[in-house]
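Suppose you are handed a protein chain with no further information: no name, no annotation, nothing but its sequence. What can you learn? This example shows the usual starting point.
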Amino acid sequence: MAKILIATGIFYPEIGGPASYAREVGKFLAHDHEVTVITYSPRLRYEEDKAFPFRVIRIWKGIPKLIRHGVYFLKLLSHVRTADRIIVLNAVNAGALVAFACRLFKKKFVVRIVGDYAWEMAIQRGETNLMINDFQKLERPGKSRLLHRIQIRTCTQAERIITPSNYLANLIEGWGIEKEKISVIYNGVNFKPATINKEEARKTIGIAGNIILSVGRMVPWKGFRMLVKIMPQLLEVNPFFRLVIVGDGPDFNILKIMTKNLGLENKVFLVGRKNQEELAVYFAAADMFVLNTGYEGFSHQILEAMTAGVPVITTAVGGNREVITQGENGFMLKYNDETNLVEAIRSLRQIPDLQDKFITGGKETITQFSVDKMLAETKQLLNA
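A reasonable first move is to predict its three-dimensional structure. Written in structure tokens, the prediction is:
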């Protein structure tokens, strides 16, 4: 029985693509292999860990950063030494340490890249206002220069690179990484829709009206500020519109202040982070899903909306183009295009046949993105 090590920065019950991916891949590989997951964690122990068919090693995030990384590295050393296959789910916080440990023991590893971490940190620290494509063309500012070098070094040393979209594969190739090393394995969706109707769902969440739902981490490029800004215009279209945003992050307080200043406390609802079961109820309550994002490597949320039978409006950026066929299973617009965003929401609201078309098209689309396919392709790559 081969030993497989999965090194990640986050893991269940934290919310995020790498956390979900590590859990699903770990469970799948544990059928035939001995699997260990090493992760940073807000807590040292969770009762749920006992139910997993693999071992979870958690490094407490409450430890000072340098000590925390040191403890993570020491745990890695003992497991990298004996591992037959190693997969790391980011290129910096876990990836750099895995790359160093693998050099020591002359081991190969696979890294999964779901975005440009250097750009994300530059945006959050206010070092740049550029979107991701423009950011690639210029000299990187401040700390992002170091982060970029680290992620390139990790990718260079990796035996293979997994990424969830052709868009990201091209981005990574632009870093100077050999195209032959990069494999596109699309994310699979394992979302279970709620079994209650729209009226029951709205009673459950305590929000009445026609719900425009958006979901994601509250960071500047997700475009939530624009959704709040256009609500007065949308209320002229339909006074029963309610904007519901699920998620948290650094922009939460900004959005809260915007909502108050615009007098929208009873029209805009920032409901915080929700688990998958709770999120399913919000999708069941929604009339449409709007993701006004400036960057998306590959969106789980779009696939979840389609699975739940909610029509989608989003932006023509990143991996969205590989999921949405314009006018068939959703609308795609420019990022933060205020006029056309209002018009798209108006049209979708006023044309029931269009809603039905997007719902039907979405159901057909998600058949192409199964978890079983994602897991089988991942296992095949690791075995190779």
